[in-house]
Give the backbone structure.
Amino acid sequence: MNTESRPGRALLWLLAIPLMACVISPPLYWAGSSLADAGWLPVVKDFPFHRYFSRSVQISALLVLWPLVRSLGVRRASDLGLGKNPAFLRDGLTGFAVALASVGVMGSILMLLGWLEWRPSPHPAGLFRIFATAWTVSILEELVFRGVLLGLLLRSLGAIPAVLISSGAFAVVHFLKTSRQPLDGAVGWTSGFEQLPLVFSSAPAWPVWAWALASLFLAGLILGFTTVRTRSLFLAIGIHAGWILGQQGLQWIAKSTIRPTDRLLPWIGPNVVSGAVPTGVLPLLAIAASGLVLWLGLRTRPGSR
């Protein structure tokens, strides 16, 4: 393959992701709505179309992943800086436990400050949905951002710029969310294309988006660092899943007592990006604590980079 053609081919594959999402999101919406109405998939009942479109983007990215890396001449995991990890299970569980503990400590502090209170009776089915979401999203995003993007950057850049660039992309992409407003009329075959001009329409206002961007960027740095150090994705997947499960689980068992008129930034702000990203100093400290514990653990690990 001509090396000069690879960037162009990569761009075409990347452009295919939103186009594919536009095509598959309406059938996905119709199928999900039918299953929910029939009582077979109640967890997605009343989901708006924009949520199906967001999931369609993730599905499309996963489908495009393999032909994309093949078009760039990647034939094996070692081409992306990844190797065998005999301690994959230990890494995944360790990362999960460290991340979950950091969010738990943050939640305990919020409880003590009176900014969170227990929910009277959280629905048990919510925990299964949160657990499935945490592991599905973490595996998918780590494959894309730390597996492919970081791996490709490492082929031409040093570790530090590669981690910085991939972390920046990881942070920015999370703001590519379409509008929460329902579409006018019924969902049709062109509804997905109508979502494209709205990709930044649900971004939060300043300074909340800046705090969210900082949280996501710091998380990306930690995930990139652990991937480079271990030459594996398992630790990063565990960390990512622990953060998601901790944050969404916290919302499952407790509710915020903060009123819209309360101005608690920079300490704590509203959750953004579908409620998955907390904002403020306290969430940043929780993420940083995860990174510090992992850094201390990896310093003396034999064979890590």
